[in-house]
Amino acid sequence: AQSVTQLGSHVSVSEGALVLLRCNYSSSVPPYLFWYVQYPNQGLQLLLKYTSAATLVKGINGFEAEFKKSETSFHLTKPSAHMSDAAEYFCAVSDRRNTPLVFGKGTRLSVIA
Amino acid sequence: KAGVTQTPRYLIKTRGQQVTLSCSPISGHRSVSWYQQTPGQGLQFLFEYFSETQRNKGNFPGRFSGRQFSNSRSEMNVSTLELGDSALYLCASRQGASSGANVLTFGAGSRLTVL
């Protein structure tokens, strides 16, 4: 069964600094990988997804993630943090069968002015 | 195009009561999934329905049940509520029968508080 580990339940960065949120996955088959963001009192919104095309995936709001099979990682980055990026971020994995999407525990991002 | 709509958004129940939550998927989406979100356990999969049939079920007790109607709307029910059932219940829909690359679109959730 697939699983996701997000390193760091809380990450704090200064406005304008690099954002790096870590995600490692485990899957017995080639995975599909997703990053979702959740703002307070809202549902989850898709940031980006990897489906075996380009390994560097660009998403909304300036975020991108790189799929590294050798490291089983799919870290999320953004060159310059903005106050509006403060939210909780979830990495998720799916395989090519009809199994449910599995989420990591989430990383709360704080942006300091 | 309207998104995934969940009702009610907030509700308070007492232990032992039951609750029904409703989810209307995006028009044309036939698959509906439910997740429970708590601070301690994160997002845990409850069940998935496709064309009125339960296709997958998570590791929750039988007090948690669901169904899907012919118009793809879904309901979930929790009977004999316990304090630990307090959570944000998220519904998500997707277009096709296959999971995998098909993106889940989430509703805003129903926040249940059990007193």
Provide a descriptive summary of the structure in words.
The complex is a heterodimer of chains A (113) and B (115). Chain A is an all-beta fold. Chain A has strands at residues 3-7, 10-14, 19-26, 32-38, 44-50, 56-58, 64-68, 73-78, 87-94, 102-103, 107-112. In chain A, 37% of the residues are buried. The mean pLDDT of chain A is 92. In chain B, the strands form two sheets. In chain B, strands 2, 4, 5, 6, 9, 10 and 11 form a seven-stranded mixed β-sheet that branches. Chain B has a four-stranded antiparallel β-sheet with strand order 1-3-8-7, with no helix packed on it. Chain B contains no helices and eleven strands. Chain B is an all-beta fold. Chain B has strands at 5-7, 10-13, 19-24, 31-38, 42-50, 53-57, 64-68, 74-78, 87-94, 105-106, 110-114. The chains are: A mainly beta (113), B mainly beta (115). The interface between A and B is medium-sized, with 25 and 24 residues.
Provide a short characterization of the protein structure.
By secondary structure, chain A is mainly beta. Chain A contains no helices and eleven strands.
Notable traits:
A: 113 residues, mainly beta, five-stranded antiparallel β-sheet, 11 strands, globular, B: mainly beta, seven-stranded mixed β-sheet
Topology (SSEs and partners):
The complex is a heterodimer of chains A (113) and B (115).
Chain A: E1 3-7, E2 10-14, E3 19-26, E4 32-38, E5 44-50, E6 56-58, E7 64-68, E8 73-78, E9 87-94, E10 102-103, E11 107-112
Parallel strand pairs in A: 2-11
Antiparallel strand pairs in A: 1-3, 3-8, 4-5, 4-9, 6-7, 7-8, 9-10, 9-11
Chain B: E1 5-7, E2 10-13, E3 19-24, E4 31-38, E5 42-50, E6 53-57, E7 64-68, E8 74-78, E9 87-94, E10 105-106, E11 110-114
Parallel strand pairs in B: 2-11
Antiparallel strand pairs in B: 1-3, 3-8, 4-5, 4-9, 5-6, 7-8, 9-10, 9-11
